[in-house]
Amino acid sequence: MKRFFVLLAVAALVVPSTVVAQTVTLKLATIVGNDNPFTTSAYKFKEVAEAKSGGRIKVEVYPAGQLAKNEIVQLEGMQLGTVDVGAISLPSIGGKFDPKMLATDVPFLYTGREHVWKVMDGPIGKEMMNRFEPLGAKPFCYGGGWGFRGVLSNKRAIAAPDDLKGQTIRVPPIPTLVEVFKAFGANPVPMIWGEVYLAVKQGTVDGLELPVTTAVSDKFHE
After folding, report:
1. What distances in angstroms separate CA 51 from CA 13, 127, 140, one per listed residue?
2. Phi, psi of 46 (to 5 degrees)
């Protein structure tokens, strides 16, 4: 299947701004499985944070939605204090918290990986980070680089946008993606990540939009 989206899954790793330099245990949440780059990065963060702090910081990693079933709930958990650190993609929370975050997920926006990092390492990326402060969270880095997004389908192969016509496709609850898939002639179904595997297995949707790495890490290729 040819991947026609040129969107990199860019995530801001954020920690509540109230955390101070003291001996603490941080709960780090991801919504995907252990083999996904979001979660392997979380374990690397745990390793580095504990080593660099000389043991003053302990990190407990909760993958696969154990603490929060989606990224909106993850950020809400950070605001409530039930989650301390999260790998959160900007557009996944933009629809609820800040529409300007949706700008990073416009299809066909980037020409390649270098373009993505030029944007996110530049003024636009800095502005996006600043937009977390009013939400009670403090970002400290972007992660990503593990692939562009694509579409899997049980109905027929997707090699071009026209192949989406008439197909029921799960998309993240991101307004920009919903409208794009409507324009392609598909029937987009916004759905939080924790519900997707069962929906695909039961045939509720014909396919789904996601990064290929997530398709493998969360066993959709099986």
Report:
1. 18, 30, 18
2. -55, -45
Q: Which fold has domain 149-217?
A: D-Maltodextrin-Binding Protein; domain 2 (3.40.190)
In the chain, list all ranges with CATH 3.40.190.10: 149-217
CB atoms near residue 122 (< 10 Å): 10
167 pLDDT band, cuts 50/70/90, is very high
The sign of the torsion formed by the CA atoms of 130, 134, 140, 141 equals negative
Express each pLDDT in 189-220 by its tens digit: 999 888 999 999 899 999 999 888 888 888 88
SS3 of 95, please? helix
Q: How much is the pTM? A: 0.84
- Domain 11-143, CATH 1.10.3720.10 — does that match? no
